[in-house]
């Protein structure tokens, strides 16, 4: 039985259901297999996925973050959980794209939601909770790539040297509990409000990483970055904050590049990771060129 078929079987056979259900696949997940299930006319979103220690994805942490975000009111309620399975209320709405984030009015709404996450999540999330420090993660990835004799191993000394310089450029940080995977598609607009979903990589971090990831994932330009920072901090950004954001943007792209390099070796998902690595490496180089490190 393939992984997809096993995920389908699990999604349809939960004792949580009141009767027979017909799970419908939902596209977009790489670390999960997702379904929409209607039970007695009520729609649910089902995430099937085990721990992925290679990438630091631990489902106890995702569950704690999902529940904290629901309690905060920024993410749908968790209605059922068991090992490898998470069931949430299904949000009817549209997922955002890069162009949506670049719209000034939408960017302000998105940043407001991110700020709500950063100011509220740490008060709600239950222990234990993970840390997500991008520079630790890329060093971990470098070790995995060396051990696997990856074809990218020759790049690692240069990439790690640049990671050190980026970390120095970020400097001291104030800890918040962040989402750490702010892809446009992780925001849902239901027509009246925004929701933030998918807490696989949640953990304590710097606000600048979430903002840098939001910017890099949406390909924001310099003036849009300034608007994002002003909306988040409530003031015109100073040069130090701009420099920190540029460093975190580059770091987020380095992490995505190396995540893909590691996935080339370790993932069983049917996905063109080699092309994804090349795409993100090019974007990292462009972001690096804009950093003053």
From TrEMBL:
Coiled-coil zones: none
PANTHER family assigned: CHOLINE/ETHANOALAMINE KINASE, ETHANOLAMINE KINASE
Residues making up the signal peptide according to the UniProt record: none
Protein name, per record: Thiamine kinase
Keywords: Kinase, Transferase
Entry GO MF terms: ethanolamine kinase activity
GO CC list: cytoplasm
Keyword Transferase listed: yes
Domain of life: Bacteria
Originating species: Tranquillimonas rosea
Protein's GO biological process: phosphatidylethanolamine biosynthetic process
